[in-house]
């Protein structure tokens, strides 16, 4: 296995007493952490006594960050609620740099399957009786998939034209990014959002939903992400 293709992680784990990170560059971690801290602070102030329940029941968000969002590379991964050994709450992020993303069906399916595996590994890391080495070794096997291919553009462009900062990705019966964004194109998203990010998750019924936006979501959007249910406005 090429370790350079293994995902890294950052955040809190129940088996650790503080923040930790592996296989992620310091500049990315600093920028990602700053975004999370802003969202956590805003959501705690905005949601008040409802915050803890919202955080603990938040969906597992999958994401794609276009190049030049946080650094000069595209990234993809998952972020989910977590807590450290002494009870301090903070998300766990598992991610990796990716090739320029194709919005062809095969590439989106490959990305979705990889995200499924990342999420399963990340959930293992939330076991307070688990071992850090086992979690990290399993994660290191989740090499980044090949995502190159023909880039297409389509109907999402019309939605973006009506709101160049944010667009919802909703489709009845959608089960993943391949259903939500197969009519998007990297060239279109880069042109309209520059840089763009994609965020999606699945509800308990399997329905997928999410959004695309310019840059990183604002702190207010982060707060809404905690209580988001696909298919519900």
Radius of gyration: 17 Å
Counted up, domains total 1
Distance between the termini: 43 Å
Q: What's the name of the CATH homologous superfamily? A: pa0076 domain
CATH class: Alpha Beta
What is the makeup of the main sheet? 8 strands, antiparallel
Give the proportion of residues in helices.
25-40%
Descriptors for this entry?
TagF_sf, single chain, TagF, 233 residues, alpha+beta, 8-stranded antiparallel beta sheet, pa0076 fold, Type VI secretion system-associated protein TagF, 8 strands
What does the model show?
The protein has 233 residues and is α+β, with helices and mostly antiparallel strands. It has a single domain (3-226), classed as pa0076 fold. The protein contains 8 helices and 8 strands; from the N terminus they run ββααβββαααβααββα. An 8-stranded antiparallel sheet has the order 2-1-5-4-3-7-8-6. The longest helix is centred in the N-terminal third of the chain and has 22 residues, at 26-47. Residues 149-164 have low confidence and may be disordered.
Which helices and strands, and how do they pair?
Elements: E1 8-11, E2 20-22, H1 26-47, H2 51-56, E3 61-65, E4 75-80, E5 92-97, H3 105-125, H4 132-140, H5 156-162, E6 166-170, H6 177-180, H7 186-192, E7 196-202, E8 208-214, H8 219-226
Antiparallel strand pairs: 1-2, 1-5, 3-4, 3-7, 4-5, 6-8, 7-8
């Amino acid at each position: 296995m090429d370790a350079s293709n293994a995902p890294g992680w950052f955040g809190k784990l129940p088996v650790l007493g503080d923040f930790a990170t592996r296989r992620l560059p310091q500049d990315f971690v600093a920028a990602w952490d700053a975004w999370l801290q802003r969202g956590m602070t805003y959501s705690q102030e905005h949601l008040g006594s409802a915050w803890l329940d919202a955080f603990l029941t938040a969906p597992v968000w999958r994401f794609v960050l276009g190049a030049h969002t946080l650094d000069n590379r595209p990234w993809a991964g998952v972020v989910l609620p977590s807590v450290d050994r002494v009870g301090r709450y903070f998300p766990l992020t598992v991610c990796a740099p990716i090739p320029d993303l194709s919005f062809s069906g095969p590439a989106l399916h490959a990305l979705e399957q990889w995200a499924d595996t990342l999420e399963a590994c990340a959930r293992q890391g939330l076991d307070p009786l688990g071992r850090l080495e086992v979690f990290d070794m399993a994660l290191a096997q989740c090499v980044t998939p090949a995502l190159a291919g023909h880039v297409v553009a389509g109907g999402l462009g019309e939605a973006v034209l009506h709101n160049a900062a944010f667009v919802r990705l909703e489709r009845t019966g959608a089960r993943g990014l391949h259903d939500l964004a197969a009519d998007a194109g990297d060239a279109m998203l880069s042109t309209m959002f520059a840089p763009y990010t994609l965020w999606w998750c699945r509800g308990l019924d399997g329905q997928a939903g999410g959004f695309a936006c310019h840059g990183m979501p604002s702190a207010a959007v982060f707060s809404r992400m905690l209580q988001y249910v696909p298919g519900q406005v």
